Amino acid sequence: MLSLEHITNAVHQWLYGNLSEGWALFAEFVIIGVLAISLFSILGLVLIMMERKVSAYMQVRIGPNRVGKKGMLQTVADTLKLIVKEGLTPDGADKFLFNLAPFVVMVVAMVILAPIAFAKGFQIWDVNIGVLFVTAVSSVSVIGILMAGWASNNKYSLLGAMRSGAQIVSYELSAGLSILCIVVLTGSLRITDIIAAQENGWWLFKGHIPVIIAFVIFLIAVTAETNRAPFDLAEAESELTAGFHTEYSGMKFALFFLAEYVNVFIVCAIGATLFLGGWMPLHIGHWQGFNHVMDYIPSSVWFLGKTFFLIFVIMWFRWTFPRLRIDQLLNLEWKYLLPISMINLLLVTVIAIAGWHF
Amino acid sequence: MQQMIEELATTAQGDMVINVGPQHPSTHGVLHLLITLNGETIKNVEPHLGYIHRSIEKMCESLSYRQFIYVTSRMDYLSSHINNHGCALCVEKAMQIEVPARAQVIRVLMDELTRLASHQLWWGALAMDVGALTPFFHAFREREMINDIMEETCGARLTMNYMVPGGVMFDLHPNFQKQVKAFITHFKGRFAEYDELVTGNIIFQNRMKGVGYLSKEDALSYGCSGPVARASGVSCDIRKWYPYEVYPQVQFTEVMETEGDCFARYMVRMKEMAQSLSIIEQLIDHIPEGEFQAKTKAVLKLPKGEFYSRIETARGDFGVYIVSEGGTTPYRIKFRSPGFSNLSALNHMAKGQKIGDLVAIMGTLDLVIPDIDR
User: In the Cβ-directed half-sphere of A185, how many Cα atoms lie within 13 Å?
Assistant: First the structure.
């Protein structure tokens, strides 16, 4: 069966067979860079389209249906419009930081793609601290947002950025603690090890109730981390017009917008990897026949299916819930989620030491 | 100029001052609020009015008693029908015109439909203010049916202009009863959905409960009326206190809450929707036969004197004050709009709350800016 692993291995061997080691590595960098950028733009287009369709069906309307077949080219048209629009820089703004901020946010989103396994053997960088790398890099995006808010010289932007800073810094904690639960169970930070450990069942099913709690906390925390409703206080359009990107226009605004969606994809991919087995098919104990049938579904389909399911859940949140207030948001984290996830981590550790998980 | 801007931007204590509006997504129009902030906490709110002032009261002075009614549709455009009704009532009171029974029932039916439509829109807009976008579309789905009824009966969907002194402009459309009944059965099913989607939501309740407290005394002293005052425990329903048309014969209760916070105001309006629905249900099968308009002269002349009438719009007590010199046009007209008095309580309610609360408070005040500015 043709899998993506064969393609990557073939390319790797061909490059190292025909070029010197340095040039081969360079060629791989270029290929990965091109792939990452195209993935970035395709993800943006697909996810924005998906969001618009999901919201439309929840809001008893049809959604975009004019450009292309069933409106599928609407986001392409919108992106083209944003590219040709003038990117204004306000007079009072700090020009350097103002123009740098969208790129910081975007680059951070792209760098986190590195350790994610899209399919069996289809991974950019199988680093031994994969999970740590993801949590470490994702917290850099708050610098981009603070930069945007501060450099805009706009009070709405500043308020939005400050809210975002407080929010991301606090919710990183419980997101990190719920990720640690899986690390404790697996005993490794490497993404491939975590996926391999779920061969005979996903952690969500194997780890008893504490892992389910960790999964729920993870979902809440990453929704907050990516500034999505009901935690979209950083942009809260009814309070702060557009929050930290009020002053941005044209492609610079589009970069923030794309980065948001790529971030959603990344956190969902991590959630799918940690709790739902990544590209690992659904295997149930000793049902050999069932497991064998499941193996026939390509691993990339499993990965994308799980990821898009989580993305749908996060979109579902957005179109159903009202927004929290800033003090309620911080109360929720510091008074409820953080203590719960700390106790939960202890429980998971006990389970891991005693070997009670399946 | 530069100095003036800087004075506006910072106060003596160095607080941050933010201009919310005149173009802002949650002021629902061209309201301009000057907010003094301490971090996220509001220290002072100063509404600046006048961005949509059209001097409607002055305009009315040059219009005849038949014409000036329709200018008021442009004030509170969400309950334009009830505004028109208030003006017609004042003219009828001055000229002592007896309105036929059929016209009275039609007027009340239309008023309650308008109130329902207005509250539906408020419900959607409030949910949107606190960050839930979906209810807005659900609210508009039901409002659309009312608009269709209005379109078929009055010929217009928003500014109906259906009232004339002495009755209504034309008779009901033959389809009216069928359409209204279809709406009632449809809306009853959806109304439970409203509660599921928004009222029971824990985030929504946290955003509403204990926010924007207005005591009974304050509600009275600020001159609040309508659902805002009733949520603070002030009994002020004009339909009960100064009944007009067929309201005395209809069974309905004046909805009251005593908490005085945003959630109380929310619940008052939600329960009022149910009351309006019940009024429509009671009347829809009992529209008496007969004239839909009293016989009046082509040119109306009010006797010399001062006349005042009040009516309960979706937002509260709407008063019409006419000074007549005995001519064909009013000498002076003054409208008492509910939104203006309700807005005046905003600073009192919002002090010490967060920015997010200000939006919720404005949402529950149900402001219509053209009604405030006139």
Answer: 31
CB contacts of A159 in chain B (<8 Å) are: 40, 355
The whole-angstrom separation of Cα B245 and Cα B100 is: 10
What DSSP character marks residue A175? H
Count residue pairs from A and B with Cβ separation < 8 A: 82
Encoding tokens for residue B11? 């106060």
Contact A212, A204 (CB under 8 A): yes
ipTM reported for the complex, 2 dp: 0.81
Domain of B87 in residue numbering reads as: 56-372
DSSP, residue by residue, A73-136: THHHHHHHHHHHS-----TTS-HHHHHHHHHHHHHHHHHTTTT-EEETTEES---TTHHHHHHH
Top residue of A325, A328, A336 to mutate, by most chain B CBs within 10 Å, is A325
- Our measurement of the distance from residue B76's CA atom to the centroid of its chain's CA atoms, rounded to an integer in Å, reads 6
Total number of domains in chain B: 1
Neighbours of A167 (CB within 10 A): 24
SS3 content of chain A, % helix, strand, coil (to 5): 70, 0, 30
DSSP-H helix ranges across A152-232:
155-186, 191-196, 203-206, 208-225
- Closest in A163, A230, A320 to B134, CB measured: A320
- Residue B321 has a pLDDT of 92
> If DSSP states are collapsed to H, E and C, what string results for A36-72?
HHHHHHHHHHHHHHHHHHHHHHHCCCCCCCCCCHHHC
pTM score: 0.86
Assign residue B240 the CATH number of its domain.
1.10.645.10
* Cα of B362 to nearest chain A Cα, Å: 11
pLDDT over 60 at B8, yes or no: no
Q: Which residues of B touch A327 (CB under 8 A)?
A: 40, 354
Indicate left, alpha or beta for B231 from its phi (over 0: left) and psi (-120 to 50: alpha). Answer: alpha
In a domain, B17, yes or no: no
Q: What CA–CA distance (Å, rounded) separates A61 from B135?
A: 12
Question: Are the beta carbons of A321 and B201 separated by less than 8 Å?
Answer: yes
- C-beta of residue B26 within 8 angstroms of C-beta of residue B35: no
Nearest chain A residue (CA) to B23: A241
In a domain, B7, yes or no: no
Domain-located, residue B5: no
Answer yes or no: do A322 and B203 touch at CB < 8 A.
yes
Three-state secondary-structure class, residue B86: helix
Instruction: Return averaged pLDDT per consecutive 10 residues of chain A, 358 residues in all.
Output: 72 81 84 84 86 87 83 85 84 85 86 82 80 85 86 85 86 88 86 82 77 89 84 77 81 84 88 84 76 78 88 89 86 89 89 77
Q: Which two tokens stand for residue B61?
A: 């002075």
